[in-house]
What does this fold into?
Amino acid sequence: MQNFNYNALAELYPSRRYAKSQQAQYRRFDKAADAVRYIIEEMPSKWLNGSFLEVDEQRFEGEAIRRLYDAPEYPLDRTSLAA
It folds into this structure.
């Protein structure tokens, strides 16, 4: 994704539907790349719908987060399980 700063501070706001779960709590990440990895690789895929990531005063939801992970610019290794 063009002009996205994967090194910027990121805040994850989980879907209200799942926010009561201990795993799905508001989280801050020092790097957006780590937040994107966490959302795609560690959270259940159904939680992507309704959750959003805020980076540099921009908001990314659902499929936009998936596109950040799938982008050629994504700086971290991907797991084969994150499909």
Observations:
- The longest helix spans residues 32-42.
- The chain has one domain: 10-70.
- The mean pLDDT is 86.
- DSSP finds two helices and four strands in the chain.
